[in-house]
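ugh ok fine here u go
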Amino acid sequence: MSSIGKWFRDGEPLIWLNAAAVSASIIMVVGLLGLIAVRGLAHFWPAPLIQANYSENGSEPVRIVGEITASETVPRQRLIDAGVRLNTDTPLVERHLIKIGNRDAYGFDFRWVIDEGLSQRAEPAELMKVERREWGNLYGYLREVRESGTRVANGAEAWKEFQDRIARASDLFSRIRAIEKDDIGAINYAIEKLRLQQRGLEIDGKDTRQNLAELDQQRKVLDAEYAVLRDQLATLNTQINRDSFTAEIMDGREIEVPLAKVVRAIRPNTMSRSQKLRHYFVKVWEFVADDPREANTEGGIFPAIFGTVMMVIVMSIFVTPFGVVAAVYLREYARQGMLTRIIRIAVNNLAGVPSIVYGVFGLGFFVYFLGGNLDRLFYPEALPAPTFGSPGILWSSLTLALLTLPVVIVATEEGLSRIPKSIREGSLALGATKIETLWRTVLPMASPAMMTGLILAIARAAGEVAPLMLVGVVKLAPSLPLDGNAPFLHLERKFMHLGFHIYDVGFQSPNVEAARPLVYATALLLVLVIVFLNLAAIAIRNRLREKYRALEGS
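structure:
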């Protein structure tokens, strides 16, 4: 009994409880990440396509074509209550969610089917899956490949011709996209700048004939370049719209689809393991590197990745100096008294303010007040259209910098408090001024703590969504904040964000079933982006810690 009492007095139960709590937390985190990874990454694997006859409630069997995306076991009574007649008396019934695609033909592309209603189930080798730029996937059988309405291939040889012409159409689409987005986009940007210059001359009373003539000359050059690009676009559009194909869908109809709307076509039932693996990595790379399409439920999320990383970088540029200066003042210069304690309490309380409150403040102060005044002072020619007087990545970064400022202040101040007083006194004794001591000795030694505060700020800011909805984030941004048009960095532009993308796709998408796998994949990618940013900051912190370890020991 005494040994048990000694065991309790030594605190062994608390140690074991702490270890169990840490282990449970790790298991839950790893399990959650595993669930997200499995459900997100499995979406890109080419699933087999099935064809079966399906009968429900005693109706005539109809042909079902598509891929099974989910299966579940539900109580029999639940289906009976929903009006479904079943042939068996088993208490549990299995049903499948089949993606039948062809939304342009059916109006929907998912359908629940009862397993016992399926018959003559097969996986035909000729069944194909066509990824399109509009209306989602097409499932069916290839019948013909056409050029300008004339059949050029059918039967067994049609598949190779189909793939060759898809590759040709994809190349033409890339060239068209490059001209529209880069070349014509740059011309439109330059023309808009000329318009604003002319408006500025009118406001300043400098719209002389000579100045207007110079602008007209520049505009004529741009118009000539645009005319050349317009002719190139017309030629490319004629070429890309030349080819099409016909396919038989599950209800027996044959539909014709232009190859200009096709991304790729595969026959999963005939693909080898290596071919499936190659297709898998192509899809993963597309998800990371391409722009979204189909209301963000298809394609990639590169603009959201870019916007998230850029916003965090801009936020870090703002929050680090302000947080460090505030911490240095509170620890090194401010007289320690009641006022200083009140300031510290206020800083700690700011960390507990709901993030949406920061969003409202950012909208009112940064966007409307600060941005509106900047427009009136520096961009009067653009009014009433706002430049900085509307939500953008600059105001989002400043809002999140304000949100994470308490974290940086507290971490930096703790780092400053750990530096021995003897180091400061030794520096001053050697003839250094207080500012030299601070700049050359104290701040370098406190830099690991500063980096710790920045790491915590990045971890919180990268996942915030609520304030961003008010100060800059959008569902789809037509242009990135960084491009080839001077001044290259456009901090006034709106941007996409991974956190908001998850919210939009998961809760605002018109096609919830198609969007669900992308929610998991995007969530996993957001976690990886945060981990990457944190690891980069941790690597810098560790280098700084090793650099000044000897000085701390002395």
